[in-house]
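One such given next:
>
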Amino acid sequence: MAIVRWPDDAPRGAVSSFCAEQGISRKTFYAIRARAVSEGEAAALEPRSRRPKSSPTRVDEQVKQHALEVRASLQQSGLDHGPVSVHDKMCVMGLPAPSPASLARIFRDKGVARREPRKKPRAAWRRFVYPAPNACWQMDATEYVLAGGARCVIFQVLDDHSRLAVATHAADGETSEAAIAVFDKGVAKHGVPQRLLTDNGMALNPSRLGHRGQLVSHIGALGVQAITGKPYKPTTQGKNERFHQTLFRWLHQQPLAVDLHELQDQVDDFDDYYNTQRGHQGLPDRITPQQAWQATPVAEPPRPTGHGTNGWGYRVLTINTNGSVRLHGIAFMITSRLAHQTITAVWDTTGVTFADSQGQVIAEHPWPPHGTTYVSNGIPRGRPPSPLSPMS
């Protein structure tokens, strides 16, 4: 009211003093004065809505309903139904598709998705991808239950570069024979890979426990390099672990298989959909794994090699009194605190890994230059070594 009735002949500086006393800006003062002149005193006294005159990014209620229906349909089919998947499906169907960020807000507001403030944004992800198809495959097995409660195992082989489902095999249990069968199935379809990444299971690669597994021997005859993740680090096989999750979501929406043959038919159908129809969010432009496989020339198949520093091998060794072991004419220093204990040396073309009887890694070294006879453990002499952690 004081602003509306402000006298025109007020002394110079009065407006500034008034605004300072009331805690408002001169811009606000003159905006209220102008509104009183153009719309009347009553209009100047009423607070105005802060709602914008137009909302060009506002999503229509009908579009929201379509998005919810598409999400529900994907979920019922056992397919990914996050904002990105719903956006892509709406585009394929020719429907107006809000951005994934808008869809995420819609799903949270409608109560069909929960807020996850602790979840890292996609920009924080750090990906490692081999440069070409067949440069590396990942193999893992996961348990499943058939109708009647019988337990079985599903082996899955995934190409690291393209995310292609190379082969899937339903088996009675996690055995070396089943692992070899699924590997050979993938080779028959897509050729021989350069590497095979697995965990340290007895059926896959028990090298850290001092055993040469049947699968390792089988692929070694083809020149394939067997590599494993460190113990208790399943994130190394993260692509395959995520692959299991996608498969289970789809299987849970299918009729429960009564035997392995029916389950094999179901997982084969899933692989076909996964490879050729489902856009993969981990690939550029969300292309399908089959498109990613075809976009890059396949890596050259390996040449079979013998054991030794140019191939794969393992040996059980005893640490000497001074804390070292000898391998291929090279003395590797471990630590004198483990003197007289038995360890396992596992090597390939890149280096050697030493593990204790429990499979815990003690030391890892790349192969030194030719002519080297001693490799240090990196601990300066004369300084007591720090305790070794199980994961060092």
